[in-house]
Amino acid sequence: MRDEQDGNNPALAELRRRLDAGLKRTRLDKKALAGLAGLGRTTVQEAFQADGPVPSKRTVKELARVLKLPVEELLTLQRDAATAGKGGGGEQPGPGRPIAEWDPHDLEVHPAGPGQTASGSGRSGSRALPGYVERDHDRVLAEAVQDVAAGRSRIVVLVGSSSTGKTRACWEAVQPLAEKGWRLWHPFDPTRAEAALEDLHRVRPRTVVWLNEAQHYLGNRDVGERIAAAVHDLLVSPQRGPVLVLGTLWPDYARSYTALPGPKGKDPHSRVRELLSDHTLTVPDVFDADALAVATAVAEGGDRLLADALSRARADGRVTQDLAGAPELLNRYQHASPAAKALLEAAMDARRLGVGLHLPQAFLIDAATDYLTDTDYDQLTDDWAEQAYAELAKLVHGKQAPLRRATPRAPRHPPVSSIDADTPAPPYEGPVFRLADYLEQHGRTTRSRLCPPASFWHASHTCLTHPDDLYNLSKAAGNRHRLQWAHLFSHRAADHGSTDALRLLADQCKRGGDWERAERLLRLAADGGSIDALHDLAVMLAEAGERERAQPLLRQAADGGSIAALHRLALMREHAGDREGAEDLAQEAAGHDSTGALLLLALGRKDAGRAEHLLRQAADHGNPIALFHLAIAREAVGDQEEAETLAQEAAAHGRADGLYRLAVRQDEDGHKQRAERLFQRAADHGSIDALYRLAVRQDEDGHKQRAERLFRQAADGGNAQALYRLALMAEAAGDREGAETLALKAADHRDPEAPYRLVMMREEAGDKEGAQRFLRQAVDHGCTDDILETLWPHGLDPDGTPTLPWQPSEYAPPDLPVPPGTL
User: Fold this and answer.
1) What secondary structure letter does DSSP report for 244?
2) Which among 270, 232, 273, 268 has a CA at the least distance from the CA of 254?
3) For helices 338-352 and 454-463, angle between their N-to-C axes, nearest 10 degrees
């Protein structure tokens, strides 16, 4: 696609003629020229090469300096050559601009240090970047850049905690592409998700797509899956490459997007999970010994910013966080005035419980009061809030503020919208504020065992109006057994248009036997644009035996994009004896990258040949789970060798379930050595469950240290059973706090009973006080269990005391009558 050869580009030809003349006059060779100009040999070679790309502005500028040529004249030729190479005034160059024209801070690289150029940085301007230290993840990024430079599209998403250097690593990685004239596109206007969805189809070859804080793109509730599909299409379309897609994510988001749904759970991130599979790269929180040694050498070479950071962060290795201002942010929080700290803690709790980025000022002021002691509250002045906000707005090292005033971008939509459900909630009236990222993450970690006080819930109920905020708070209150607040928030969320809240209320009505009201609420949610509500309504009708009413609703939901509806239709056709129709619907779902229906049909077929045929179809659509089931089918008929071959093939495609399941079968049949071999192979392919089973075997054989090491590896991978076993080890060793932390982590990883088992252990050991204390912490952390209904049938108040008996009211939107006798 290049149209940059000298014969087709007069400006490029003239640029190279002048460079050649300057080179001959100075009698330098290109190797010496590269050294004097501070450029790579390949970059210099391509600048003179007749069929090479247009050299970048920086390349031309440095060559002109060394060859003593008129800089501005050569830069004009470079600009004209680049324009001609893009087709002049014809074909649009696509979104973005040349990498060399970007300021890294505009790409959200954290500012660091005072506003002057760092010694030896080689950069000009008022904001300098500290020296860069390459680590292991940088070498992987460099390989990806080499791949795209060779013509192969790639995606890499860096996963790490706040301020660990993810964005800076991406910036450093693309510098070789800047020398080759690549463009960079950072979609953010009017919102990140809208910009990405609108212009991804316009991305041209030799472009870096910059998805910093990728949760704003891939995690968007409305279009995240569509963005993931568009990025996937960009990567797999040869005519659109090469391109490089770079993104960053916090670990919590990465885990959420890549987690497999339960057997009956929803799968809101199926496309995102597939996009991220094998394309994430972990950025460690701290510099290891090697990185610290390199950083020390760079600092001793004259980099004052890095030297200052090392003077504070050498002990714990958190160099990037120091450079980004994180320690000062933490210091400001810890030493804030009581009023300012109360505002920060209210903001921290709001963010960790699901309230959006922009927090209304009125909400924070009302919420903060119960975070103060009685003494501090009595000493508040009339202008306490104004003084506290002014204190928190002061910038820290790295030009960040603990709590800063934000200006949300106004949504941009066509003048007339034909779909009411797409209309966003109106922005909050009055000023809104945003909590610093580092303090947000600090709050998620340090306050996870705390339930916000009553003023927080009251202010949220009074001041917040965004339906997603209210629904998330309803779920957060329910998870913490604050049943009365959960009830109130679910009603308020529904009043403000939350279709999720309407579906929740409908489910409550259904479980209470009021199917008529449940149907009306689901229809209200469906009228609000919820395809999931339409699916729920159809399922409810089908369960009531009204299949004729259910089927058109399922078809409508399927046409609206509900894969679950296609699955349900396929099963209904199967149960009705229409196997061909069922398979057609399953194939339709497979065309949308969902092979679950094919699997369900296959597993329900008694005809082994037909079942294997359907599994093969699912496997051909890229579903490794189908290969796993084929392996099980082969094992069932005694073909162990073929079973292992199929399981190995599935593992090569990212699913080691088959190898793990075969290992379990062999273990149950008494073939211990063969089972251990399969467990090890499954673990080598990433099966955390297999790693856990290997740890158990080592523990049973008396190899305690080896077992603990394997348990820790499995726990690092998110295995809840391994986390609980480690909790038991910590409890036995007397590390009660460590045991509690691990038990709560196990609950976060789908073992909600783990904390309660630890509570029972302490009660049985006679430690009733310790058991009760941890029980309250577990509840405040959000660990739900059936026992809570027995202990506190009416729920808990925010301070942890049992709620007095109260009567829930039935939700009645404007078109539903309020039943007599309700609150």
Assistant:
1) E
2) 273
3) 70
Nearby residues of 769 by Cβ (< 8 Å), 6 or more positions away: none
Alpha carbons 405 and 434: distance in angstroms, whole number: 6
What length is written for the chain? 823
- Checking 21-28 for CB contacts under 8 A at 24+ apart, the result is 22/63, 22/64, 22/67, 22/68, 22/69, 23/48, 23/67, 25/67, 26/66, 26/67, 26/68, 28/66, 28/67
At 463, give phi and psi (nearest 5°): -105, -30
779 neighbors 479 (Cβ within 8 angstroms): no
For 164, which DSSP code?
Answer: S
Beta bridge partners of 282: 159
CB atoms closer than 10 angstroms to residue 539: 18
Return d(Cα 506, Cα 515) in angstroms, integer: 8
From residue 40, give the alpha-carbon distance in Å to each of 44, 179, 703: 6, 9, 54
Average pLDDT of span 617-644 = 60
The Cα–Cα gap between 216 and 631 comes to 39
- 91, pLDDT greater than 70: no
CA distances from 174 to 98, 202, 234, 280 (A): 11, 21, 19, 17
pLDDT greater than 60 at residue 155 = yes
Instruction: Please give the span between the terminal C-alpha atoms of the chain, in angstroms, as a whole number.
Output: 70
Give which of 96, 60, 106, 95 is closest to 79, Cα–Cα: 60
**Is this structure's pTM higher than 0.70?**
no
User: Within its chain, how far is the Cα of 384 from the centroid?
Assistant: 37
Catalogue the long-range contacts made by 333-337 (C-beta closer than 8 Å, 24 or more residues apart).
Answer: 333/402, 333/439, 333/442, 336/391, 336/392, 336/402, 337/387, 337/388, 337/391
CA distance to 95, 519, 526, 589, per residue, from 559 (Å): 32, 21, 14, 11
